[in-house]
Design goal:
The protein is an all-beta fold. It has no helices and 10 strands. The strands form 3 sheets. It has a 6-stranded antiparallel beta sheet with strand order 6-3-2-1-7-8, with no helix packed on it. Strand 9 and strand 10 form a beta hairpin. The radius of gyration is 17 Å and the shape is elongated.
């Protein structure tokens, strides 16, 4: 079971965007994730009238390694570690390391 999933609120713990929060848009196979508003880069896009794409400089989110982010705990307003636990009804579930609540 992956520790960070699509839709989770994460905070960047290292790198140029340290301290910024965002939600996970996409989880990639090679331990990278794309977070909304994090690690954005300028992309120069050519116009394509056939598909209706306008040209110009656009901001695009680039992948960030999963080890550079941590899940955000709204109760403590800090980042937290994720632990795995067995629940009799649900099976394997993700839990916050500090509080023990299910995610």
């Amino acid at each position: 079971m992956p520790r960070i999933k699509k839709g989770d609120e994460v905070i960047v713990i290292t790198g140029k965007d340290k301290g910024k929060r965002g939600s996970v848009i996409r989880v990639m196979k090679n331990d990278h994730i794309i977070v909304q508003g994090i690690n954005s880069a300028k992309k120069h896009q050519k116009p394509n009238p056939a598909t209706g794409v306008t040209g110009g400089i656009i901001d695009q989110e680039m992948p960030i390694h999963i080890s550079n982010v941590a899940i955000y705990n709204f109760k403590t307003n800090k980042f937290d570690k994720i632990k795995m636990s067995l629940d009799p009804q649900k099976g394997k579930v993700r839990v916050f390391g500090s509080t023990g609540e299910t995610i």
